Each structure stands twice: as C-alpha cells, then as structure tokens.
Amino acid sequence: MAPSDTISFARGAPSLDIVDVEGLREAAALAFAEDPAGLTGYGTAIGYPPLRAWIAEQHGVDPSQVIVTNGSMQADAFLFETLVGEGDSVVVEKPTYDRTLLSLRKYRRADIHMIDLEPDGLDVTALGAALRDGLKPTLAHVIPNFQNPAGYTLSREKRSALLALAREHDFTIFEDDPYVALRFAGEALPTMLSLDEHGTVVYASSFSKTVCPGVRVGYLVGPAELIARITALATHTYISPSMVAQGIVHQFCASGRIRSSIETVKAALAERAGVLCAALEREIPDARFVAPEGGYFLWVELPEGTDVAALFTAAAERGVQIVKGTDFLLEGGENTLRLAYSGVTPEEIDEGVRRLAEAYEALAPAAA
Fold first, then answer.
1. Domain ranges in the chain?
2. Of 335, 346, 343, 269, which Cα lies nearest the Cα of 304?
3. Where in this chain does the record put each Aminotransferase class I/classII large domain (predicted)?
C-alpha cells in the first residue's frame, strides 16, 4: 500500500509556495479598476490588446506579428492546423514533449521524424544528413531552452546551423520556448526568432511557467501574414480568448511583478535541481543525467535492460510519481524517465529519491 503522502515528480508546474499570489491579487484588482469594459467584454481573437503590445515590445516586433491564446498548447494547435496537413513531414526532437507527439499524430496525422537530442540540443548534423537524403519537412518543432522532457538547451552554434538548414530546405522552425526565462545557471542565449532575418521562425511561449499555470495564457510570434491566418482560425474557434486572464497577466507584467516572480521561481528551481542531482548521485549511482541550467526537468537514463514501466509501478506503490521516458518517444527509451523538480520541496525531493531508489533496488533481482 502506497504511503498517504504522495511525492510527485510528474507534473511540470511550480508549487504554490513560489507563486506570487499576492502579486496576482493586486494585478487583478488593477486590471478591473483600469479597464472593466476590456476585461468583461468578448474582445477579439488577437488577445487582450495591451498584453499583445507588451509581448511585441519584448520581442522587438510589430503587434501584428503576435497573437495571445488560451495557453501555449492552443497556440501550438493553431499553428499545426494552419501549417501541417495530413501526411506532411514534421521534424521533432527525440525525445520530445508528449502532447506535441499526440497533437501531430492523432489530430494532424503528420509523418513524424524524430531526430536525436544531444546535451547541446538537436543533432543538426543528423538532420542535415536526413535532409540531403530527401526528407522535406514542413515544420521542425524545437524546444530550445531546458527542453521538456530532457532539460537540455540548444547551443548558440546549433541555433545558427538550424536556421541555415531551414532557409536552405524551406521549412519553418517552430521555436517552442516556455522555459526561456527560467535560467538559473550558465549564459543566456539569443532566441532563433531574434536571429531570424527571413521569416523562418514562429515563436511560442507561455506565462504558465513564470506567472502560474492557472492563468492559461500563451502566445505566438511570427510573420504578420501567418498570424493573420491563425487569428482567423482563432476567431472561428472561440471568438476570443479570456480577456480576464490576459488582463491580469498584463498588469502583472506591466507593473514589474513578473520580474520578481521569475527571480523567486529561479531561486527555488536552482535549489531543487541541486538537491535532486545530489540525491540521485547518492541514492541511485546507476543513474545517468545532465545537470540542468534551468527549467523544470531532468532526464534520467538507467542501465540498459531496466524496465522503467515496472519501476513506475514499484515507485507508485511507495508513493512516488514519475513519468516513463517512453511517453516522449515513438519507440525505445524503456530504460529512461523524466523527473520534474518544480513542484516539490527539497525535503520532498530527498525523500522521493530515497523511495525511488528503494523501488529500483526491489527490481534488481528481476533484472539479474
């Protein structure tokens, strides 16, 4: 029987203690005081105009190049529906976010090509070889910073190389970047959007990781013509996204509270990532991983032959939730798992890894 105090390494979300609830309360009051008509009306599919303008300013683009949506997953879905037809080739990282795989496979019926992910990001050499061999993708989906599930970051050199490949082979780079602000070590890198001079990149991000998941506010930045097409799709889908949520986020951002919120989250993530790495080294010496420089996730490889599906069950019996690596792959990865450290305290991490090690050790006789 599992302990009553379940410790979850499964959810990529901040714990309540690092969410600026007071700042959100103040932002909500200001939003309703300053623009009650704007918040309570339907609005338009572009999103809340002041927030759209703020986002455009952050990225140095015209507001016509921005659409604000109900979370970044909806932004992803709109982009896929606009650009990806049934049977179109799409490049994704191996491993990649499980919801991306679901959307592309189930709803778009795309022809997915997984390219290996290395500690410094997508293997652009392998992608280049596949392109020369005849691969003609419509889109390449990349999570460049602190990738979900691996936690890896695309290097500066690989960003430039990927842009060059996209121009040469005429495909769109979808730069899916919800974790960009959450760097707690190392040097910040320029977005591919900022390096792009040819309209090759469509950029997405989210306030779920820097404000809180409950606001459900994400956005796309891209060529104005493409954003106009997506706006028409959004209009037919829901008339407009939530003006209330977006108005609150705008006040949170414009007031500067988002900066202090990000610093609070980064400090917590840095501590939690350090505790997790130390606990794994101490409790499960067989585990192989790359210490993250930001974001929410750590990718763990266990020795070949380890059955992580069995480990998943054994861990659950001990009150620990993990995510199997196979969830992020089309095939393989039976010896891998993802651990999210964003929603657990340092004390919970130590106890959770101790229980996970106990589950792993319990499987050892079966693997022998």
1. 7-19+259-367, 21-257
2. 335
3. 7-356
